[in-house]
Design goal:
The complex is a heterodimer of chains A (325) and B (162).
Chain A lengths: L5 H7 L4 H17 L3 E9 L2 E11 L2 E8 L2 E9 L2 E6 L2 H7 L8 H4 L4 E3 L20 H6 L1 H10 L3 E4 L21 E7 L8 H4 L11 E8 L2 E9 L1 H5 L6 H4 L12 H19 L7 E8 L14 E2 L14 E2 L2
Parallel strand pairs in A: 6-12
Antiparallel strand pairs in A: 1-2, 1-11, 2-3, 3-4, 4-5, 5-6, 7-8, 8-9, 9-10, 10-11
Chain B lengths: L2 H17 L18 E2 L2 E5 L14 E10 L5 E10 L8 H11 L5 E5 L2 E8 L2 E8 L2 E8 L5 H9 L4
Antiparallel strand pairs in B: 1-2, 2-3, 3-4, 4-8, 5-6, 6-7, 7-8
The chains are: A alpha+beta (325), B alpha+beta (162).
Chain lengths: 325, 162
Amino acid sequence: MVILTAASLAALSGCTKIGTGKTILDGALYRTTSVARTFSYAETAGGTQTEVSGAIADDYRYQLAATINQLPAEAEVVDDDARALQVGDSTLLTRLTSPGAPVPSPLTAGQWVVDPTGASQLFSAGQSRPVVGTDPVYDALDVIDYVRAAIAQSAGVELFDPEATNYRKQSDPFPKPKDGVLRYDVDPPAVPQVDAITAQGGRPLDTRYFRRMSIYVHDGMVVEIREEISVLNFLEDPRSELASRISEYGFNLPNGPPSVQATFLANALDALDTRLGLPAVRERDLDVTFSNLGAPPTVTMPAGASTGSLAGIGDYGQILSEQAT
Amino acid sequence: MSRAAGVGRVVAALGLALAVVGLPAAASSASNGGPPSMLNGLLVAPEQVGPPPAGSRPQLLDAIEFYSLRRPDKELVATLEIGQFRPGTHVTSAAFQQSVAGQVGTQVPLEQQLGGETVFVTASRQVDLAVWFRDTRLFVLSIRNDYDFPKALIRAALGVDT
C-alpha cells in the first residue's frame, strides 16, 4: 500500500513557490533590464491586435513602433533628453493627451514631432502611469515591471514541471520550454473568502484571479513572457474553485456551456468594476519575446521631424529604471 | 550670481551628502588629469574643497576632486565630485554601492543603465544627483533640477560617447 502524505505530495508538486523560483526569476528579470535588447510585444485583447517592436540601447535610448490591427498607430524615439513621437491613430492620440495639453499640429497630422527636452525627467511621473491598454508603447516598455507586479500579486512562482501533481495540461495555454530554456509559472492566488464588504457588492475579483503567466529564461535572461487573462480558463479549471464559489460573490452563473458562463461573468465583473471605479479585468493574450540581448542597437531620431512640445502627450517621465534595494 | 556663491548655493546639500561617505579635509588630487575642459557644452573647472563638517562619520574616501560645470555665461549648472575610496573598501559590491548611493541623496536611488554602466539617480534640494562607481573611485554629478539636458550631461560625464 502506498500512503501519500501531505509532505510527499508537496514534494511532487513541483513547488519552488515564493522562495527559490521567485529569487531566480527576479535575478533574470534584473539581468534582462540591465542589457541592451530588442523585443516584440504582441497582444490580442477584445478582438484588437496590438504589436510593438522595440530596440533598447539603454535606459535613455530606445525606439519603438506600434501597430493596432496591422495599421501604424504610434512610434517613439528617445535619445537622452530628446523625445520624438508620431501617432497615426487619432483615437489613440486623444487617449494619450492629458486634458488641456496642446497638441502640435504636425502630430495631429500623423507626422513626427521632436521635443528636444521631452525626455529630460530623471524620475517617473509616478501617479500618471497609464492603465494597461491605454498606451501600447508604454505597455511594451514597462512589461518587466508589469511582470514584477504580477508576481507580487501571485501565490508564488514555480519551475514548470508537467509531472507535478498540481499540473493540469488542459489549463495550460502556453508551450513547453525548448531545450535549454527554463519556464517559470506565476501561480494565481486562490479565490479569497468572501468578507462582508464583498458580499454586499463591493471589492470584486480582480485581474490577478484570472491570470496565467509564464516567463521563459535562457542563460539567466528572460527570452519570452506569456500571459493569458481569461475568465473562461479559470471557470474550467477546478483547481481555481471559481465555478463552485462564484455564487458567494453574488454572481449566479446561467445554465449553459462554460463559454456562455464566462461571457456572463466577464460582463458582470466589468459592470461592477465600472460602478466602483476600479480597473476592469481586461482579458488578453500576450506574447513578448526578447532578442539580441547585450547587443546595443542603433537608435536614431527621425529625419525631418518638426520641433514642438510633447508635454502631456504620452509623457510619463523616466520609464526604464530599477529601484535600488 | 557670483561664482563662489553659486557653488555654495547649488551644492550645499551635496556637500553634506558627501560628508556621510567621508569627505576628507581639503584633500584634492587631480592626479588623473581630471575630466575634459568641456562637458555637454558646459565649461569644467576645478574648485577647492573645504574641510568636512564637524562630526563627520569615519572617512571612506581619502582624496577628492571637485569641479564646477558652467554655461559660457558662467552660470553654474552642475558640479562633479570624484572621490577615491580608501584601500580595502569593497567598492564593487552591489550592496555597498547601493548603500553609498542611498546616502548621497534624500530619495531612494533608482538604478539606470547607460552604455553598459549602472548609474544611481537620486535627488536632494533643488538638485538631481547621479552617482556611479569606477574601479576604486566614486563619481557624484550634481545637476540643478531646472537644467534642460541632465541625461546628455550624465552620459557625457560617464564618457560613454567620448
